[in-house]
Amino acid sequence: MSDKSKESPPPNHCGHDDMYCKVLSAFLALSSYLIFQIIDITSRHYAVAFKIPIHNIGIFFDKLFSLRVLLILAGNMIEYGIFHAAGADRDTGDGDKNKGKRVRRYIAVTAFAGLFCVRVWFLAGLYFSKELGYHAYVSLSFEGFPFGISDSAFMPLIAQYMSVVAIMFNMTRIFIFVVQFILDRIWYDNPLLMIKIQAWICVLFTGCSVFLWYYFNFVIKDHTFKPPKIENAKEPEIKKQEYEEIEINDAESIFDMLIDLCFSPDEKKEKEKQKVNQQSKKSDCNALCQDCKKRVGKDGIFTLISPLMMYWCLNPYMTFLFPGTVPYALLKRDKCHRINMFIPIFDNLGTLTLFFIDNFGKLFPCWSWHYDLFLLLLVPFPIIFVFALMAMHSRVSAARKIISNRTRVGAMTLVMYFSNSFCTPLHYIGMAKYSFRGNPYGFTIQGLQKVIGGIARSFWAKVSVGYSVTRISLGYHLPKFRPNHRMSKSNLGWYIFRQTFRKTWADFKGDFVLDMKKYL
C-alpha cells in the first residue's frame, strides 16, 4: 500500500510547460468563437447580402444578439444543472471531487458536436434558403444553445489555460480581420460569396475541433478525471490515526481540568470554535492557494470582488451600446464597416498584455492590488453612454457633432473595445484562477456567475432592442434625426423610458414566435 502511495504522478501528456494542451485549447477556442466574431466584424456585409432596411440594421443585430444570448443562457443553465446533479466539485465523503467533471466532459464533447451540426445548417441555408435574412437570424440565434452548453463546460475544463483562451477569443478577431481584408480586396461587391467562404471555414474548423476536444478530454487528460483510488484505500488507516491522535490530545489530566474551570462558558465555546477552524483551514485550498497567501497575503472569496466588478460594471454599457447604438445609430453602414475592421486590433491590446504577464511573469497566479487598478478603464463607459444619447436626443452642439462623424464615432467605439480588452479577460482569468487554485466551491461559483451574468446580459440586450425601436419610431435616426413629435423634454424622457421597457417586453414575447420578418 505504501509503495503505491509513493508512486510518481502521471507523466505530463501535454508536453513541456503544457505546450500541447495550450495549443489545443487555443484552436478549440478559435473554432468555438468564430461565428460570434464574424458577425461583429462583417456585419456590413450581412446587412447588404440579406437586404436589411437601412434603418433596421441596428434592430436586426440587436434582436439577433439578444435571442442568441437568451439561448446561450438556457444552455449555461442546463449544463450547470447537470453538473450539480452529478456531484459538482463537492466532496460527498468518499474524497472524490471529480464526479461533476467526469460528466462535464461528456456534455462538452456532445455540445461541440451539436455546434457543428447547427453551423452546417447555417451553411446549407446560404445555398438553398429563399429568405436569407430570416434564415440567418434563426440559425445563428439557435447556434447559441449548443454554444451555451459547450462554453459552460469548456471554461472549467481548461481553467489552467484561461489566459490562452482569453487571448484566442480576441485573436479570432485578428484571424477574421485578415481573412476579411483579403476577401474585401477581391469580392467586396459580392458580400454573399464572402459570407459563404467564412461559413465554410467555420464548419471545417468546428468539425476538426470535435475530434480534438474528444482527444483532449478522453486521451490526454483522462487521468485527471479518475477517482482518487489510492487515497480512498488509505482513508480508513488515516482516519484511525486521526482518531488516536484526538483521543491522546483530548485526554485531560487533573491539571488540565483545573485550568478549564478558570474559563467561562463563552470562552470555552470560542476556544472550541478556534480548534474547529484550525482543522478546517488545513483542507480549504491546495498548494497554489497556500502559496498565494504567503506571497500576496490573501486568497479566498474576497479576491473575486474585482473580477466580478469588471464584469458587472462593463457589461451593461457594452451590451446596450454595441452595435445597435454605437456605431450603427450614429454612422452610415459602409463607414461602420471600416471601424469594425479596426476593432480586432484594439480588442487585442489588453489581451496580449495579460497573456505575456501570465506566461512570463510570476505574479498572475495570485490576484493582487495591481490588477485592481484596471478598474480605472471603466471610467470612459458612462461618458460615452451619455454623449451617445445626447447626440441623438439633444441640441447640444458638442454632442451633435458626433453624428455622421467617422472619427468621433470610431474613437468612441475603439475606446470601448480598448477598455474591454483588459477588463473582460481579467474577469474570466480571475474567476478561473480562483477555481484552479483549489479555493472552496471555485467551479460552483464560476458556473453560478456564468448563469447570473447571462441573465443580466440577455436583459440589457433586450433593453437595447426596446430602445432602438422606440428611438426610430420617434424619428431619431439617420440621416437627419428629425423628431416627429411635439412633446416637452421632460415628457419625452419619461415617454422614451416607459416605451423602451414596453417594447423590451413585447420583443421578449416576440422572440418565442421569431418575429424578425417585420423588420426585413
UniProtKB/TrEMBL annotation:
The UniProt record lists the keyword Lipid metabolism: no
Spans traversing the lipid bilayer: 20-39, 65-86, 106-128, 158-183, 195-216, 309-330, 342-361, 373-392
Organism, as annotated: Theileria orientalis strain Shintoku
Protein name: Uncharacterized protein
Keywords assigned: Membrane, Transmembrane, Transmembrane helix
Keyword Endoplasmic reticulum annotated: no
